[in-house]
Design goal:
Structural class of chain A: mainly beta
Number of helices of chain B: 0
Helix content of chain A: under 10%
Radius of gyration of chain A: 14 Å
Distance between the termini of chain B: 37 Å
Shape of chain A: globular
Strand content of chain A: over 45%
Radius of gyration of chain B: 14 Å
Oligomer: heterodimer
Structural class of chain B: mainly beta
Order of helices and strands of chain A: EEEEEEEEEEE
Chain lengths: ~120, ~120
C-alpha cells in the first residue's frame, strides 16, 4: 500500500525566509504526487502535482517541488515566505493505475510565518 | 464556474441518529470522492463514485455509505452515529475517470459534523 510521511507537524519561518516542507512517499512504483494547502475552516486547494516528465514542478503562489526518485521524496519549497502562506500543507499520493481518484494524504504540516 | 458545493456546512447530531451530507460537483465532473478529516486520524479516504458506481472504498465500517445520482451529485450517509464520527467531511470532484489519467481533485469547503 502507498503511504506518505511528512516530517515535522509544525514548521515556523520568518517572513521572507525559505520555506521547506518535507514529504517522503512509500511505493514500489513512483506514484502521482500532490501538495495541497488548507486554510482554517476551508477545503483543500491544489498547489502543484507531479505525474510524469519534468521532476521540478512549479505551482501556484510561488511554490515548487522536486520529485527525487532515488530519495523517494517530494519536498515543497518557496524562496520567500509571506504571511499569507500560513496554513496547513498536505502531501498526497495517488496510484498510477486502478486507483481512480483516490488520494492518500500525509498527516500535514502546519506552517507558521512570523514577522 | 461554480466550485464544489457541500451542504450543510455545519451539523449537530445526537449519538445513534443518522445523517446525510450532500455534494454537488463542478459541472461536467463525473468523479466524486469523500474524505473524513479528524485531528487524530487526519485525512482519510471514504469512497469514490464515478458514473453512479462506487469505484473505490476506504477502510470504514458499513455505517458509512454513499451514492451518486445521474447528474453526478453525491450524498453520503452515516447511520447510528458515534461520538468518533465527529469530523470535517470533505467532498472532491474530478473531471476524468482515473486509470492512467489523473486530473486535479477540487475540494469543497466541507461539512463540519458534531456528534453529541
Amino acid at each position: 500500500a502507498q503511504s506518505v510521511t511528512q516530517l515535522g507537524s509544525h514548521v515556523s519561518v520568518s517572513e521572507g525566509a525559505l520555506v521547506l516542507l518535507r514529504c517522503n512517499y512509500s511505493s514500489s512504483v513512483p506514484p502521482y504526487l500532490f501538495w495541497y494547502v488548507q486554510y482554517p475552516n476551508q477545503g483543500l486547494q491544489l498547489l502543484l502535482k507531479y505525474t510524469t516528465g519534468a521532476t521540478l514542478v512549479k505551482g501556484i503562489n510561488g511554490f515548487e517541488a522536486e520529485f527525487k526518485k532515488s530519495e523517494t521524496s517530494f519536498h515543497l519549497t518557496k524562496p520567500s515566505a509571506h504571511m499569507s502562506d500560513a496554513a496547513e500543507y498536505f502531501c498526497a499520493v495517488s496510484p498510477l493505475t486502478g486507483g481512480g481518484n483516490k488520494l492518500t494524504f500525509g498527516t500535514g504540516t502546519q506552517l507558521k510565518v512570523e514577522l | 464556474k461554480a466550485g464544489v458545493t457541500q451542504t450543510p456546512r455545519y451539523l449537530i447530531k445526537t449519538r445513534g441518529q443518522q445523517v446525510t451530507l450532500s455534494c454537488s460537483p463542478i459541472s461536467g465532473h463525473r468523479s466524486v470522492s469523500w474524505y473524513q478529516q479528524t485531528p487524530g486520524q487526519g485525512l482519510q479516504f471514504l469512497f469514490e463514485y464515478f458514473s453512479e458506481t462506487q469505484r473505490n472504498k476506504g477502510n470504514f465500517p458499513g455505517r458509512f455509505s454513499g451514492r451518486q445520482f445521474s447528474n453526478s451529485r453525491s450524498e453520503m450517509n452515516v447511520s447510528t452515529l458515534e461520538l468518533g464520527d465527529s469530523a470535517l467531511y470533505l467532498c472532491a470532484s474530478s473531471l476524468a475517470g482515473g486509470g492512467s489519467v489523473v486530473t486535479e481533485a477540487f475540494f469543497g469547503q466541507g461539512t463540519r459534523l458534531t456528534v453529541v
